[in-house]
Amino acid sequence: MVERCFDWGLIGVALAVAGAVAAYGGGAPKMRPPAVPLVVHDPYFSIWSCSNELAADWPRHWTGAIHALCSMVRVDGKAYRLMGAELRDAPPMPQTGLRVTPTRSICEFEGAGVRIQLTFCSPLLPHDLELVGRPASYLTWQVASADGREHEVALYYDNSAELVVDKPDQAVTWGRANQPGLHVLRIGSADQPVLAKKGDNLRIDWGWLYVAAPDEKGVSTTITDHKAAREGFAAKGILPDKDDARMPRPAKADWPVTACAFDLGKVGAKPVSCRLILAYDDLFSIEFLGQKLRPWWRRNGAEARDLLAAAAKDYADLVRRCEAFDAELMADIAKVGGADYADLCSLAYRQAIGAHKLVAAPDGRPMLFSKECFSNGCIATVDVMYPAAPIFAFLNADLLKATTTPILDYAATERWKFPFAPHDLGTYPQANGQVYGGGERTEANQMPVEESGNLLILAALISQLDGNATYAQRYWPQLQRWAEYLKAKGLDPENQLCTDDFAGHLAHNANLSLKAIVALAAYAKTCDAAGKKADAQEYRKLAEGFAKEWAKLADDGDHYRLAFDRPGTWSQKYNLVWDKLLGLNLFAPDIARKEIAYYKTKLNPFGLPLDNRETYTKTDWEVWTASLAETPRDWEALMRPVYAFVSATPQRVPLTDWYWTLDARQRGFQARPVIGGVFIRMLADPAVWRKWSRTKP
């Protein structure tokens, strides 16, 4: 659980960096999230707070575009802001605390004689695909007297139409839906261009956003312009009694909002609560090889009313389940990696899952599509699913299989003619074939060793989790072809790209060679599980021989090289972690020990550089590298600068996985699914891994 108190106020970059450096030296403060997840379900329905207090700025989509959510409270006739930058005439109620757990963000306020807790809950419980695929979050307000007196209290919420358009000059329309027990407001774009656009820096502009509040005494709703709604509540505690009929109109024209007000009456020491549901029905989510796919929750014909009815019915149960899940998961993570590690995983949890979209394949199988957020916008990228895999391998192998299924299905078609694995399936949300490098046309600028190794390792991981090779056997011709490719090309890679493609082409890449060797042994393990004993023996023997050669080729005295032909260089050997996690035991333990000892001499205030060429690093790979450590002392030594980075980075965005280790500044990337890779340390504890991977709803 990430927890923060607000004695700091708004701090400058210099103070943040100085404080984090002090934390690195000892006595770390509570971790400060760079951005706080509020409503996070998929790459389009992803809203974050990017400031120290909810009322200091508007919430934003992960891309940085404003996705305005507003909340106010009236206490004894005076209005205060809880969330959002308006109304400026209403002062912000002091925010006194923040807790971020895997499924919830809990904001605390106190002022005017009352205490308020505002909880954002996205119930992404990983063992229940229905919930992972249900795009509905809960906002819950709880109010109690803080001074022993009773106070007249009313609460307000609205969201702008920015949540349903890519650009605010796009026209929107709105209305109401009749549903027993609920006030239901909906808003969406006028044009509804379903799956028409693809790209990185995009917001959804089709489907419908729903706001649903209980149809109870004291609850009122409206759809009107922002001033009428906000000023009406602030002045008199009431909303306009008629919806605005001026539509369609641009989202920025008088900023139409869907608004709710809750008159709580007199509030004393006993807490009083109210709630609403914020949900998004995108109708169709992904285009896969020319076919539009429904979101998972719609696979059996469900409509928006069914989504809202289920979310309303399940509210109390899901609140209880999320609280229990968060507490148990955080306790186990802290036991394995420490309290700071638990905070990091807590912050990464919704980001990692919410950078994917769960849909139903044409034959009904679950498919989980990732987006390369602010790297190139690719969909189902293999060297993104590989670093993201630990969170799914730890919590639900069905989700891991759902990430690999689309790319493996594609590789099995006649369209993919190369002897190595593909890189991606297109540009989000159109998964119509590889666009990276030479695409389907040429071998130029591909990642042949990288992606082939990634998928062989993931296939072995899935087989280990399932206890059989049934899933892998469906794609056996592809796996066999890629193993043959690595047999010929893996030990000493040619001049090519790896997942860290921002660093450029590199021949004789020692870490990439490690991946190929581990992948060959992983394939041998899968062969054994499939009953292919001769192939298992052949590839195991091959991998063992390659491992011995690697130790000689990469040796540079007290460490191992970046590239075989470059003495005096070094790099993080994060791919080595699977030798231990898959129980392959190819490499002598002294190799990892030597590397860890050397890395400790190369640490900067905010992390371990990726290699000797630059001072930037990758957050996910740092945790993989630290997971090679055999002692808690070495683990902490490598991880402490990572925790300092999280609190010190001046860029207030969802966690980046590419930053500078000297000043904690973002180098690029944000909100990417690869942050799920920080869960890899949990796979190093067999008992805890077994417990969570076998848990059922």
Features:
Glycosyltransferase; 22% strand; ten-stranded antiparallel β-sheet; alpha+beta; 26 strands; Beta-galactosidase, Chain A, domain 5; globular; five-stranded antiparallel β-sheet; 697 residues; 2 domains
Which oligomeric form is depicted?
single chain
Q: Based on the structure given, which CATH architecture of the largest domain is correct?
A: Alpha/alpha barrel
From the N-terminal CA to the C-terminal CA, the straight-line distance is 22 Å
If you consult CATH, what is the topology of the largest domain?
Glycosyltransferase
Beta-strand content: 15-25%
- Please tell me how large the radius of gyration is: 26 Å
Helix content: 25-40%
Mean pLDDT: 95
What's the CATH first level of the largest domain? Mainly Alpha
Structural class: alpha+beta
Count of individual beta strands: 26
Q: Give the strand order of the largest sheet, numbering strands 1, 2, ... along the chain.
A: 1-7-8-9-10-18-14-13-12-16
The biggest sheet amounts to:
10 strands, antiparallel
Number of helix segments? 17
Count of structural domains: 2
**Which parts are unreliable, with pLDDT below 50 for 5 consecutive residues or more?**
4-29
The global form is: globular
